[in-house]
Design brief:
Length: 293
């Protein structure tokens, strides 16, 4: 079977160019540029890379961006103070606090302090709740990016069976909501996790499998029915001495054996990853338009 690769990198580049065009039109009209602020605590390698790529994406979209850095020993109080300041600043449209945070800081407490109007990650209880009710909201970037890829590749979702592997707050749960709701996926959704029985059978009955469990090569060919669409959200760093960085990103899907069975599949890297950052840009533009236009 010949499969089609879903090119997230190219799709993200197209969308960023569309955003840039919109921004330049606004600027030509005398408006200010959208402004995204990122807070980064400590020096975690993955977080450093994500935030660097977010800043680069801002440049590509014609946004203003600000990176606020703290050392690992920042207190919860200091972070809460910064969040309160950003909530009120007129020149800031949206901001994110890069996760994970050091153990001495309560992530949920920080999250709940973010004003939902500036929560372009879509992680606050108000945005999660509004999204679940089908109300206008900021939808978290990875699920939104996956839905956008399915739409841009004309992959039908209405009435299709979608199996989601993983139930995280960032991907699995919001993904299930989006795929279930009539105005988005309109699909039949099953969410599987580490305690699910009949996991292989569930996967075999899926038209679309979304793998987001963070276990490299978890989804194997015997779990995929011919013609299925497979979306790989995994980005585990595995040691690789042949790389300059000393690691490579490994997806949750055993690509080489699964791909030949699929009609569509995302690669790692270059699939879901670039779309996530691109959707953060889209959310930032939405936040800006909500405040400014
Ligand atoms: N850490 C991993 N993914 C994300 C994300 O989408 N947003 C933030 N803020 N932190 C993350």
């Amino acid at each position: 079977m010949t499969f089609q690769l879903i090119d997230g990198k190219a799709t993200a580049a197209t969308i960023k160019a569309e955003i840039k065009q919109q921004v330049e039109a606004l600027v030509a009209d005398g408006k200010r540029r959208p402004h995204l602020v990122a807070i980064l605590v400590g020096h975690d390698g993955g977080s450093e890379t994500y935030v660097k790529n977010k800043v680069l994406a801002c440049e590509a979209c014609g946004f203003q961006s600000t990176l606020i850095r703290y050392e690992e020993d920042v207190t919860e109080g200091e972070l809460l103070e910064k969040v309160a300041e950003l909530n009120h600043r007129d020149d800031v449209d949206g901001f994110i606090v890069q996760l994970p945070l050091p153990k001495h800081i309560d992530e949920q407490r920080i999250n709940e302090a973010i004003a939902w109007q500036k929560d372009v990650d879509g992680f606050t209880p108000i945005n999660v709740g509004r999204m679940s009710l089908g109300l206008p909201s900021f939808v978290s970037a990875t699920p939104k990016g996956i839905l956008t890829l399915l739409q841009r590749y004309d992959i039908p979702t209405s009435g299709q069976k979608v199996v989601i592997l993983g139930r995280s707050n960032i991907v699995g749960k919001p993904m299930a909501q989006l795929m279930m709701q009539k105005q988005w996926g309109d699909s039949t959704v099953v969410v599987c996790h580490s305690h699910s029985k009949q996991l292989r059978e569930e996967c075999l009955s899926a038209d679309i499998i979304i793998a987001a469990i963070g276990r490299p090569d978890f989804l194997t060919a015997d779990m995929v029915r011919p013609g299925a669409t497979v979306i790989d959200v995994g980005t585990t760093r595995v040691p690789d001495a042949t790389r300059k960085t000393g690691f490579r990103l490994n997806g949750d899907v055993k690509f080489d054996e699964v791909a030949p069975k699929c009609s569509y599949i995302t690669p790692v890297p270059g699939g879901v990853g670039p779309m996530t950052i691109c959707m953060l840009m889209q959310n930032t533009l939405e936040a800006y338009i909500m405040r400014e236009v």
